[in-house]
Amino acid sequence: MKKESFGAVGGREVFLYTLENKNGMQAVISDFGALIVRIIAPDHAGNFADVALGYDSLEPYLHNGCFLGAVIGPNANRIGGASYELEGKVYHLDVNDGANNLHSHKELGLHKRVWEAQEKDGGLLLSLTLADGELGFGGNKTLSVFYEVTEDNGLRITYDGDSDKNTVINLTNHCYFNLDGQGAGTIENHSLQIFAQSYTPADAGSIPYGDIVPVCGTPMDFTRPHVIGERICDDFDQLKMAGGYDHNWVCDGWDGAVRRVAVLKNQTGTRTMEVWTDLPGMQFYAGNFLEEEEGKDGARYRRRCGLALETQFFPDTPNKPQFPSSVFGPGRHYHTVTVYRFV
What angle do CA 226, 231, 234 make, to 5 degrees? Predict the structure, then answer.
């Protein structure tokens, strides 16, 4: 595994780690933010491209307002009213997205932490601890993310967590993908299939109402492959409120096993990525509010030049007892797996 300096944060040096399989696929990971900095992935003819949006240097990641490539936690996505009640105690979180909480904390979340790195079994294990009450979440927590590039061209991400009291844990990765290569233009011409008969509609603040609603007959129906830009501007309230696709799909057949939940193809169909997970939901975000800025290799990023497929427990789960629980603690170890596989 190649290891190289990526700069320093607060006087502490951080690094890039390059994982590679026998086929030449690579993932470049940083111990700052547990970031995915690059994914060098093959197409069907064996041609390689970097398909993950990101930056050439550390400094832009210190801001990273769109969370490019970052591990999000201890709770990914939104919590309504920036608070929740657990076992009779109300926990107050950072109010950073209207009246709500988004991605735990924009400046102090896991995407802005330096993780402890360890090479293990051909992969990279990143770990850190959070104290009871830190960022508004209970429990002394130990969290880890294990990255590995598999021989079948998958980037496999394994998340683990323990807490000495019941608390909310819901980690994800916020990598933005463009299967034509980062900086290649819009993802509106990509084709997406999501194996989900239902989704969780949300209000204007992207907080789910609590209902699980069929996608059939709506622009949210990706049970068959659809070009993303085909219906993204339809006169449909969910799309109008969110500026496009930025919703949680309820993955079919959730039973705790790792199964395929989505297939993404570029415009020409020459590169295909599958998403596999053991989680109940996936947020498809079409990059509606990506900032116009310079990315890697001189690329200019702008609206909808990348998309995120964030596996997760549902948004606002701590306030929605009808949703699958994201509470973990002494009696329930947090362990999930997500794979982004190029086929």
Answer: 160
